[in-house]
TrEMBL record:
It is a multi-pass membrane protein. The keyword Membrane applies. This is DedA family protein. It is found in: Cell membrane. InterPro entries: DedA-like, VTT_dom. The chain crosses the membrane at residues 12-32, 52-73, 134-157, 169-190. The lineage of its organism: Bacteria, Thermotogati, Deinococcota, Deinococci, Deinococcales.
Length: 198
């Protein structure tokens, strides 16, 4: 636990920005600690070692710029990947499905995906592949980034101020958050498999 807190402190605001940017903007960043980082940073801020406003600013900036990078990666490279016959996992019909999904749920998806691990890494890229209008994407990108970047660290901060020594249980708290976040994904996957089987 001490090592985790020390890592947050050593990373400071620039490190928080970089991790959030990579997790939300680069496809290989899905394994990075998004929610756990925000919770830990909020608790560290509650202890006075970081400023809550600085944490929020770093998260929001990293989230907005990261999602924007992911969008342009999808827009620039997505169509070429989907047209490649050797890319067996990326079929042209997936693009059509993505476009249909974003036409119907795109705005909500960009906001809600912020709170779902792994999903938040891929949604901006899919938005770019499906050619979601950049103005619309940017608006909901900013809304989602502010809600996530303010809400999660602030909740951790105020719980840390309310409950003494709560920072000792960061790993447990993070574990609970991850499980709760993954449950909706697991339910959707099971429902899709049942429908496919039926």
């Amino acid at each position: 636990m001490h090592d985790f807190t020390a890592a947050i402190l050593s990373a400071s605001y620039l490190g928080i920005f970089a991790i959030v940017f990579a997790e939300t903007g680069l496809l290989l960043g899905f394994f990075l600690p998004g929610d756990s980082l925000l919770i830990a940073a909020g608790l560290v801020a509650a202890s006075g070692d970081l400023h809550l406003g600085g944490v929020m600013a770093a998260v929001i900036a990293g989230a907005i710029l990261g999602n924007t990078a992911g969008y342009y990666i999808g827009q620039r490279f997505g169509p070429a990947v989907f047209r490649n016959e050797r890319a067996k996992f990326f079929k042209p019909e997936y693009v059509q499905q993505a476009e249909g999904y974003f036409n119907q749920y795109g705005k909500l998806a960009v906001v809600v995906a912020r709170f779902v691990p792994i999903v938040r890494t891929f949604v901006p890229t899919l938005a770019g592949v499906s050619r979601m209008p950049i103005a619309v994407f940017t608006l909901y990108n900013v809304i989602g980034a502010v809600l996530w970047g303010v809400g999660v660290p602030a909740l951790a901060y105020y719980l840390g101020r309310l409950i003494p020594n709560l920072d000792r249980y960061i790993l447990l708290i993070v574990g609970v958050v991850l499980v709760v976040s993954i449950i909706p994904i697991a339910i959707k996957v099971l429902q899709a498999r049942r429908q496919k089987t039926a």
